[in-house]
Structure formats: C-alpha cells, structure tokens
Amino acid sequence: MADPKGFMTTPRQEWPRRPVEERVRDWDEVYVPGALLPIISKQADRCMDCGVPFCHQACPLGNLIPEWNDLVAREDWRAASDRLHATNNFPEYTGRLCPAPCEAGCVLAINQPAVTIKNVECAIADRAWEEGFTPPRPPERLSGKTVAVIGSGPAGLAAAQQLTRAGHTVAVYERDDRIGGLMRYGIPAFKMEKRHLERRIEQMRAEGTRFRTSTVVGRDVSAADLRTRYDAVVIATGATAWRELSVPGRELRGIHQAMEYLPLANRVSEGDLEVSPLSAAGKHVVIVGGGDTGADCLGTTVREGAASVSQLDIYAQPGAERDEDVEPWPTYPKIYRLSAAHEEARDLRTAPAADADARLFAASTLRFDGDEAGHVRSLHLVEVDARRRPLPGTGRTLPADLVLLALGFSGPDQEDGIIEQLGLELEPRGTIARDAGFATNVPGVFAAGDAARGQSLIVWAIAEGRAVAAAVDRRLTGSTRLPAPISAYDRPMVV
Ligand SMILES: Cc1cc2nc3c(=O)[nH]c(=O)nc-3n(C[C@H](O)[C@H](O)[C@H](O)COP(=O)(O)OP(=O)(O)OC[C@H]3O[C@@H](n4cnc5c(N)ncnc54)[C@H](O)[C@@H]3O)c2cc1C
Ligand code: SF4
C-alpha cells in the first residue's frame, strides 16, 4: 500500500467503455483502448492491504490480489506480472471476462465501492505482454510421460500448460477447427478479442504443447484408444448439452439455441463468413434466458442490426444494492447489473414496446405462434410470482421473427461416445463423476472444468485445470510441486 489514505482520497474509476453508438458498429472490445493504464496505479492504491484479504479467498485461483495491487501502485509491473502469473495462467481472460467475485469480497466493499481488482488484473496482463514479461517457459527436461487433454477451453488449456511446463508431453484434442472452447465460439469478440487467444496458443506451442484440432474424440479417435496410448487422459470437454424449452410452438422455424446462434456470429467476426445464416438483421428478436449467455446474444443481435430485441428473465428484478440479511458480505450477491450489452440495448431503446430496459423480469414463456409457412412470428408470455405461478391479467405478446434460447446447460454432450467408450460414471445431474482429487472411476482418467463441475465460470475452469494438472503430475511421478488452488468439491462462497 503505497498511499495508506488512497481509499479515502481516490474514488473508484472503472475502465471506460466506448460510446454506445460507436461500439455497436464493430466487433471490437467495448473498452476505450489505452484508457486503463493511465488510471490504474491510483486505483490499485485504493487497496487497504487489510490484513485478512477476503478478495483472495473469494477468487477460486487464490490470486494474490493485495500483493499485486501494491506492486501496481508502485509501478513495478514486472514483479506484479510474476505474482499474477504465479496463480493464473490466463489473466488477460479473467481480467476481461470474470464477474469478479473478489470485488464482492473486498473489505472496502463493506461500506464503499470495491477496489477495481479485475481492471488491475487486466492491466498487469496486458502490460506483461507489451513488455515481454511472459516469454514461453518450456521445461528444462522431459519426464518421458504423455498426457492427452480432451477439450481446449480454459480448463483444458490451463491443465495442458501446467503439465507441459512440468515436463510431460501433452497433446490437446479439440473437435472445433480452432482452439479456445467457449471463449472462441461462444463468448463474442466485443467481450474479448480473439487475438488474446492466439497469443497464448502461440506461447503454449513454443513451450511444447501439441494441438490436434478438428478431431472429435469418441468419433475420429476412440477415447479408449487414447487411454491406452497415453499415460493419463484429462477430460475437459465442457458442459455443452443445452436445456430445452418445451412449450407449444417450439418446433417452428426461427427458434434456435443460443449456442447455435453465437458460434455463427463469432465466425463472422473471425472472417470465416460474411453474414451469419442466422443474422438478426431487420428481425424482431426475443431472447429467452436472463443470464450471461442471453446478454451475449443481446449484444450480438444489436450489432447485427435487429429491428427490436427483448430478453426474458424468469427471476424477479433484483435490487440495486446487496440485501445484507439474505446475501451478506463477502458473498457474491444477486443485484441489478448493467452489462455492456444491456447498456447498449437501453441506450438504443431496442425493446419493442416502451420499455427502457430490454429485459423483462419475472417473465415466463407460454407459447410461440407462427405464420402459414411454419415460421415463428410471436411469443406469448405471462408474469410469474417467486414460485413461478402465473399472475392473472399479465399476459403479453411480443413480435418474434428470431427466438434465441439461452436457458443454460445440463452437462457434457454425450453424443460423442467418450463416456460410454471409457465406461465413465456420471453424477445424477449428468456431469462426470470424480473424487476430490479429480480422478474418475477409470484409472488414469481425470475430469476437469464444466464437464465435471457443471456450467460455471472461466476462473473456476482455470482453477480446475491447474488443480487437475497437479493430480495428474502426482500420479505420473509420485509427487508434485504444481499448485492445486481448489479441490473438485470446492464451491463458490455463497450463503
Ligand atoms: C455464451 C457464453 C458466455 C459465457 N460468458 C462467460 C463470461 O463472460 N465469463 C465467465 O467467466 N464465464 C462465461 N461463460 C462460461 C465459461 O465460458 C465456461 O464456464 C468455461 O468456458 C468452461 O470451460 P471448460 O474448459 O470446462 O469448457 P469449454 O470452454 O466448454 O471447452 C470445452 C471444449 O471441449 C471441446 N470438446 C467437447 N467434446 C469434445 C470431443 N469429443 N472431442 C474433442 N473436443 C471436444 C469443445 O469443442 C470445447 O472447445 C460463458 C458461457 C457461455 C456459453
Ligand atoms: S480471476 Fe476473477 S475473482 Fe480472481 S482476482 Fe481476477 S477478477 Fe477477481
């Protein structure tokens, strides 16, 4: 803490976003380029170095937040980068995409706005790349052991990087044509530009990690075969089995799952397609689902030029402040948050009626109606109470030429046959069963990330990747010096 009064003299200031009118015309990140560095040292100096840092506890990676806040306040960027990379393989991803449970747990947040921890993390990561503080770190010697990692999302990539650096020969198998998992074809570029992925992949290649893209394990290569060819296998295939909406009219054309829609839009921003076959241009769009995936659809439809967009959330509108009785500090509270996409929809008044907010809360879909050609044209909804019972007289119809279902994911996609080929046991909810040390019921086969944890966050996926790497290293060599920030049974800090 360079300035012990920093938190009293400096107000919280976040990385400013570009004007809405400007940013919705492109796919670039929403932030003003270069506007973070000039403000961030003063912001880091708001950290009180409080002695018992709950922020550190709230971060699944155990990021050493007060330490790097102090180093950034003193402008020692190299040391800050070393401390940050000691616990996080990919801070430029979490610095842009993490919902920052650390900030909810910041001691300052008890009665003041929290330190902008996520922004500090992002500034350190970006500066580290600019200054060359993150060169490839290939192992000094090879162990002679081999590991197959299935899936190249944040969990698979973190596991692969840790194991490669520990000296094992690692091959990452990925069914898509590019590496990155949901960060590649789910999350839109306006939240994180794909160049951040390319840079890390290049670093990992230089360290010795091998990548096998466009290879569906279970179909193109059998999972049982991988088990015999490699000394260990890590399954990090994500939770991509989406939830359905079983209401009348679901079969109409024009109703799609979010993860049918978002990858095509991402392919446009990658330059693979000129126009998405599911483009929202000129259409009335309704997004069913109030979470992050729905917000990503919202920002994408706005950029594609939708005629109108609404987003339905089954939950009631949360309050603007934390309810201390229900979700006390330092837990991550449900409060009304305005993401960049929600801000765009509000400012551009995308809602079809007079609603200022594109989100309709406590809204439950009753049915879809279509035209004679079998295409969806409207969605009927009703307001519901906390127990999801319809409230009389609240029925409403929205125009809908394109409906996007963003209702979450139930577990790993089982169609590829991996689970059957290996004889893996599943949890009752469909995720891959494992012990506290990430080992499945099949010796030498481990599971990490959303495939085993269920739908979660990038920060948890990276923590899982680091922890599973430690477990695999121990199995292969009898001991490990790799850090394990979490056990497979750890959960977010909630009431
Ligand atoms: C639209 C969307 C937006 C999100 N936004 C955020 C956000 O802003 N912040 C945040 O923290 N979290 C966000 N999340 C959640 C986050 O992306 C996931 O929790 C995280 O990516 C999970 O990482 P993972 O490595 O376990 O799996 P994934 O990222 O899902 O990666 C799994 C990979 O395995 C591959 N694979 C699957 N089966 C096979 C097979 N048989 N053979 C070969 N490869 C296979 C898949 O193609 C995929 O590339 C979002 C999720 C979605 C859907
Ligand atoms: S990874 Fe997320 S929780 Fe951890 S310090 Fe960064 S923003 Fe906070």
Number of helices: 19
- The dominant shape is globular
Cα-based radius of gyration, to the nearest Å: 23 Å
Which structural class best describes the helix and strand composition?
alpha/beta
CATH superfamily of the largest domain: FAD/NAD(P)-binding domain
Ligand species: flavin-adenine dinucleotide, iron/sulfur cluster
Largest sheet: 5 strands, parallel
Strand line-up across the major sheet: 3-2-1-4-15
Oligomer: single chain
Detail the poorly predicted runs.
none
Distance between the termini: 31 Å
What would the CATH topology of the largest domain be?
Answer: FAD/NAD(P)-binding domain
CATH architecture of the largest domain: 3-Layer(bba) Sandwich
Query: Under the CATH scheme, which class of the largest domain?
Result: Alpha Beta
Domains (count): 3
Pathway: Amino-acid biosynthesis
GO molecular function: glutamate synthase (NADPH) activity; iron-sulfur cluster binding; metal ion binding; oxidoreductase activity, acting on the CH-NH2 group of donors, NAD or NADP as acceptor
Protein name: Glutamate synthase
Enzyme class: oxidoreductase
